[in-house]
Amino acid sequence: MKDITIKELLTLKQPIIIDIRSPVEFKDGAIPGAINIPLFSDEERQEIGTIYKREGPANAKWRAMEVVSPKIPLLLKTLKVASSKGSELIIHCWRGGMRSKAVVTFLEFAGIYASRLEGGYKAYRQYILAEIPSMFPEKAVVLHGLTGVGKTEVLKYLKEMGYPTLDLEEMAGHRGSIFGTIGLEDGHNQKMFDSLLFQGLKELQDSPYFLMEAESKRIGKAVQPEELLNRKMQGLNIHLHTPVEQRIKHLVSEYVLPYENEPWYYEKISDGIEKVLRWVKNEEIKKMLNETLVDRNYREMIRILLENYYDPRYNYKRQEYEGGFIEIFADDPKTAAEKIAVELNNLAFYREKALGNKF
């Protein structure tokens, strides 16, 4: 049986990572790209854990074999299909213990070669948390702009154009606002965010800078590391400007049109408006928002929210940043990305010719 370390795993090109933990463990946090083929169901894992605590390890192992034995043929067949893709097969559980050892042993008897991840998912998580603080490029280029200017879309265009980006909202599974999970389920927890951040930073290892949005410290359920927040506050600031009608149109297309006929949508919007109303002091504004909610007039609701809630809060937050802002005016995200690319190219030329390796 061959064990493979986290460092060795991360050097492999497209390994097939099989996570044999129970579904609830996998959902709580996983290595990006891993396939969950659970050895035990959530209920079976809980039962075996209870036996371990009450009756000891011997009885727990016996019960585990009783549970696993009928599954072995199907388990091996599933893993054989996965291994047929040609890449190296890696098996892991929580700590690289009995579960992964047993599966790798079964595979060996069946003539299928696989490696066991040393330390399992626990070792992977410890490793990435230790590595992340030192992985950030030296400088951040921070995209600012009022709600609805399309910062995320601009970031995606810039990535397609070959510029180094970190899409923190995608990593958090959340758009960073009260209505940020509409159409995105419940968002990612901290473990998944950290894993995706580590993966994103690996792609930026040779870059002197990266682009990001001016996100708050918390994005949904996830919290950014202090090193990233420091880069943001000391970064080069770019402020995007788009006409308010275009912003409303963009928000309607993103938050309303795809979902407004879904049975859960009205309740989700109602919950969001209830949270907003806690911060709104003007009684007339509260009344108008409630009316748009009752009438399901989401377009007008968005206009009121922009003018009376989001824009004032954003203008206040901009004051937290030191240094000047490069102002970009555009009617759509693609044009904004192209204008930003011009600014970035000018900055790169200036850095190389005038400042050597300084940003």
UniProtKB/TrEMBL annotation:
Record keywords, A-Z: Selenium, Transferase
EC nos: 2.9.1.-
InterPro entries for the chain: AAA_SelU (IPR058840), P-loop_NTPase (IPR027417), Rhodanese-like_dom (IPR001763), Rhodanese-like_dom_sf (IPR036873), SelU (IPR017582)
SMART domains xref list: RHOD
UniProt keyword Repressor, yes or no: no
A Gene Ontology molecular function term of the record: transferase activity
Record-given protein name: tRNA 2-selenouridine synthase
Organism: Neobacillus ginsengisoli
Highest taxon of the lineage: Bacteria
